[in-house]
From TrEMBL:
Species of the source: Cryptosporidium xiaoi
Compartments where located: Nucleus
Upper lineage: Eukaryota, Sar, Alveolata, Apicomplexa, Conoidasida
Swiss-Prot/TrEMBL keywords: Metal-binding, Nucleus, Zinc, Zinc-finger
Coiled coil: none
Residue ranges of domain C2H2-type in the record: 37-60
InterPro entries in alphabetical order: Znf_C2H2_sf, Znf_C2H2_type
Keyword Zinc attached: yes
CDD domains: SUF4-like
GO molecular function: zinc ion binding
Source superkingdom: Eukaryota
Gene3D superfamilies attached to this UniProt entry: Classic Zinc Finger (3.30.160.60)
Chief location of this protein within or outside the cell: nucleus
Name listed for the protein in its UniProt record: C2H2-type domain-containing protein
One GO cellular component, as annotated: nucleus
Amino acid sequence: MGRKKRKGSEIKPFCYYCNREFGDEKVLKQHQKVRHFKCLYCSRKLSTVSGLIVHMLQVHKETLSRIPNAIPGRDIPDIVINGMKGVPAELLAEKKKEQTIEKDIKRDNKDYNPHGNKMLSLMNAVAKDFVRKNRDIRVPGMCNGAERNRRFR
């Protein structure tokens, strides 16, 4: 049996063109194919930017100047990106830093949450103790009330 892979070490797959995050790289590639690598004229879906460029030149005799549905500045078809392959290293480092900051914030919020797991378990214990001590109190909506216990004895 091998060691488990740490989830924190790898970054979550994201689309270079629109910054949308995905749970799996397979879903990311499907998104890019449908959203960014789709021909503007015939709606044919291609796997890569270079495939889209070649298709536009051969079939429609047009040059692709911008990638559809991309953020301004990232719509240049010169960079070949397929999934997470080809994404610039600076952007990967920046995204990893953002994700670690978000992870730390979530962890801190979970620790300081007044309704966190510790508080809920404490409230549950207090409520159970109260019910044990006060069996005669009728609480609306409570299924194990005093009347029900008397009927089945």
